[in-house]
Design brief:
This protein is α+β, with helices and mostly antiparallel strands and 491 residues long. Helix content is 44%, strand content 14%. The strands form 3 sheets. Strands 1, 2, 3, 4, 5, 6 and 7 form a 7-stranded antiparallel sheet that branches. A hairpin with a 2-residue loop joins β1 and β2. α10 crosses α11. The protein starts with 15 loop residues before the first helix and ends with a strand. The model has no long low-confidence stretch (mean pLDDT 79).
């Protein structure tokens, strides 16, 4: 089968008009006939393995162990020798070992399948000059998509037009902060993280809105390429697999040596060859540690259960042991493992800073003044509650990391959010990169939240206090802290 190729190469290097021309599309979208043709050429927009769960393969995989092979041979020998009790015990040991492994891996596979089935991605596209909603798997290169706040980007796309668009690309580039996007062409040699006119499959719109054209789908997307590399990675034995294999061969050769020695010694002393064969076979069966595979499986199952309690899924039991054998962790350039998450660690009030005092980081308690600042900030948030039907303490938020953290901190400190977050259109001026602040109505005045230096310029502090606060802002920023200021404006 001929490998699918891109319609347009390096779309970030071309202007928006050139990309549309190369993709044989327009802002009015593709026709249904053209979509059908491209679906036949490029296939559906997915890269996950669509094979159904094969229980037979999972079961056979449990038998792929040198120790299991020896046990099976031992069961055959005991059957030939009509040692039925021993044969039943050995077969029972093999079945228990395979059953435990099959149960754990089947449970992991079915859980992953269920998680996948819960996700039904849909996209707003323009086709035949009409905006419609379709399944993201039916997207093709050349489709025109409308993106807005909270949208999950379904394919690699070139930005045609945008308004203050920012996307969270942490899963692809490791950058924890949203990345600003424009429609301007950039140099051809730009790396993925620097392509400011491209948005990528799997990332999330954190701010603004845009019209984009699909450039790549399925396995040709950046995240699809990563998935393909991972799926084609050469599998190497884990430390426990190597150890068990070596032990199995040691047992095999030592047992063969002992059996041959016993057989030769008995025959040399005049014993019956048939009797010596029976005795040698019995020694061979007795030398096999049939309880070892079961013990290993039980131990690995316990490890998998502990990992599952931490909300992680182990697809293969040996992975539990492999994690315990890690001696080197490769981290990103900051020396930390990126979680794409920030936390509110301290609130410093104006009075505290003017008195050269700073708040204790991660303190579980807040003063009345600090709680007042957090309350004001919580009334100036543009976040989306994913589960508003749940009780407030169980709310899950999406939005700008700064604002999500403020919402979480407010809940932790028992500040009610329902009135401020669930009411619509309460922000008079939403935050954007130009103003660097947002404004909301509050009683007879306004709450202003934004960059500390911007709010400081608009304050009524005298020169001495102004310079003091400005110095603190500069020092805190140099220490790697992300700062946001909150203030009020009376009318």
């Amino acid at each position: 089968m001929e490998e699918k190729k891109s319609i347009v190469l390096n779309p970030w290097f071309l202007s928006g008009e050139e990309v549309l021309s190369k993709l044989s599309t327009s802002v009015d979208g593709l026709t249904e006939e053209e979509v059908e043709k491209r679906l036949n050429i490029f296939g559906k927009n997915n890269f996950k393995n669509q094979n159904s769960l094969d229980v037979t393969k999972l079961a056979l995989r449990q038998l792929m162990s040198p120790l299991i092979f020896i046990l099976i041979i031992a069961a055959v020998l005991t059957g030939v020798l009509k040692e039925w009790a021993n044969m039943v015990v050995i077969i029972f040991a093999v079945l228990i070992n395979a059953g435990l492994g099959l149960y754990r891996e089947y449970q992991a596979e079915t859980t992953l399948e269920k998680l996948t089935s819960y996700i039904k991605d849909r996209s707003h596209v323009i086709r035949n000059k009409k905006e419609m909603e379709i399944e993201s798997s039916l997207l093709v290169p050349g489709d025109i998509i409308k993106l807005s706040y909270g949208s999950r980007i379904p394919a690699d796309c070139r930005v045609i037009s945008s308004n203050d668009l920012k996307t969270d690309e942490a899963i692809l580039t490791g950058e924890s902060l949203p990345q600003g996007k424009t429609s301007d062409a950039i140099k051809e040699s730009s790396l993925v993280a620097d392509r400011t006119n491209m948005v990528y499959a799997g990332t999330l719109v954190m701010q603004g809105f845009a019209t984009v054209v699909v450039a790549e789908t399925g396995k040709l997307t950046e995240i699809g390429k990563i998935a393909d590399i991972v799926s084609n990675t050469e599998r190497v034995p884990t430390p426990i697999q190597r150890g068990v294999s070596q032990l199995s061969w040691y047992i095999f050769f030592i047992t063969i040596f002992i059996v041959i020695g016993i057989f030769a010694l008995g025959v040399s002393r005049g014993e019956s060859i048939l009797e010596m064969l029976v005795l040698s076979a019995a020694v061979a069966v007795g030398a096999v540690p049939e309880a070892l595979p079961i013990a290993l499986t039980v131990i690995l199952s316990a490890g998998a259960e502990r990992i599952a309690s931490k909300k992680a899924i182990i697809r293969k039991l040996v992975a539990a042991e492999t994690l315990g054998s890690v001696t080197l962790v490769m981290t990103d350039k900051t020396g930390t493992l990126t979680k794409a998450d920030m936390q509110l660690v301290a609130i410093d009030t104006l009075d505290m800073l003017l008195k050269d005092k700073t708040a204790t980081q991660n303190s579980p308690r807040m003063s009345a003044e600090q709680k007042g600042v957090l309350t004001l900030a919580s009334k100036n948030l543009d976040v989306l509650v994913q589960n508003p039907e749940s009780e407030e303490k169980k709310w899950k938020f999406t939005g700008h990391p700064f604002e999500v953290n403020i919402a979480r901190a407010a809940i932790i400190h028992d500040i009610p959010l329902e009135e401020s977050i669930l009411r619509e259109n309460f922000l008079h001026i939403p935050f954007n990169s130009s103003n660097k602040l947002s404004v909301s109505k509050y009683n007879d005045g306004y709450i202003i939240m934004g960059a500390p230096d911007v709010l400081l310029k608009r304050s009524n502090l005298d020169k001495e206090d102004y310079l003091k606060i400005l110095t603190w802002i500069q020092n805190a920023s140099m220490d790697g802290k992300r700062l946001i200021a909150v203030g009020t404006l009376s009318t």
